[in-house]
Design goal:
Number of strands: 8
Distance between the termini: 43 Å
Largest sheet: 4 strands, mixed
Structural class: alpha+beta
Order of helices and strands: HHEEEEHHEEEEHHHHHHHHHH
Radius of gyration: 19 Å
Length: 295
């Protein structure tokens, strides 16, 4: 389709400008400066449209982790998938600026210092998506609807993925509702996010529902993280681990949630964030307990 080709052309043209990649790296380093102890982006040493010199970042590619699967040390595997989703959710919920290529080949894991503290390094910032307020709110609404098991809202959010409307909207809504009744029962039900998203995309194809570029980026990144999580820790549920943030966003509203998150990020001690990470990790692998404590 002409629109798809033009979006692909714009993405590829931007990636050829190495000065733009340098700007992306600086933006990510700034957004994650509070988490720099464990989330690292290469430092830009020199940049021009044709040349980019970055700091060398040693470590093991997450693709090797995925290949080894359950043989990977459990604490290392949990760190990679939980912190990887933390990064994705901050980019989506707070920063409005998403790395557009979050596959395992762009993630490095390493241990540093005399105590061997774990770190993630995120590479290849050539493609990044600036999310509009409407795009961010709509995609967050989709995730919240999946968490609530609300098939009609899931379908209506997807229909807003493009300004071009599908001619079979009602039929699409009916099919999505039927799919959700069977496979999307919400938080704490061992929902398989990968299956739900893939079946939703098959229905989009069947009903010719269009999708704009930034939404495609958000979905592709979600599938990459979900696939990596399933290979490294089959019990890990990417939806359940996001429950506190998604529900907080739902209760506070978009603007108030962003303000609260930024304040908490700077004023809460790092020990509190570390505790929240461990609680989120526990809930991700014991999601059925969420049914007792859901707000």
């Amino acid at each position: 389709a002409p629109g798809t080709v033009s979006q692909f052309e714009a993405a590829m043209s931007g990636q050829c400008d190495l000065a733009q990649e340098a700007r992306h790296l600086e933006a990510f380093r700034y957004n994650f400066r509070r988490k720099a102890a464990w989330m690292v982006f290469p430092e830009v040493l020199f940049a021009s449209p044709a040349v980019l010199v970055e700091s060398y970042e040693a470590g093991e590619l997450a693709t090797n982790f995925v290949r080894r699967g359950l043989e990977v040390d459990r604490s290392d595997a949990h760190f990679v998938i939980a912190r990887g989703e933390d990064v994705y959710l901050q980019m989506l919920l707070v920063d409005n600026f998403m790395h557009a290529d979050l596959h395992p080949g762009n993630l490095i894991f390493r241990r540093t210092g005399i105590f061997g503290k774990p770190q993630l390094v995120l590479l290849d910032a050539g493609m990044a998506a600036h999310l509009t307020t409407e795009e961010r709110r709509n995609f967050i609404g989709l995730l919240q609807a999946i968490g609530d098991g609300d098939g009609r809202t899931v379908a209506n959010r997807v229909l807003e993925f493009s300004k071009k409307q599908s001619g079979s909207g009602e039929a699409f809504v009916a099919d999505v509702c039927a799919m959700c009744d069977e496979k999307c029962k919400g938080y704490g039900t061992e929902l398989d996010m990968g299956v739900v998203i893939r079946e939703m995309m098959q229905l989009m194809y069947r009903h010719s529902v269009p999708i704009d570029g930034n939404y495609a980026t958000l979905i592709a990144n979600m599938l990459c993280l979900e696939g990596m999580a399933r290979e490294l820790e089959p019990r890990f549920n990417v939806l359940d681990v996001a429950y506190p943030l998604l529900r907080g966003h739902q209760l506070l509203g978009d603007q108030h949630f962003q303000q609260a998150f930024r304040l908490a990020q700077w004023f809460l001690p790092l020990s509190v964030w570390e505790l929240s990470y461990r609680i989120a990790l526990y809930s991700a692998m014991n999601g059925t307990l969420l049914k007792r404590f859901q707000i």
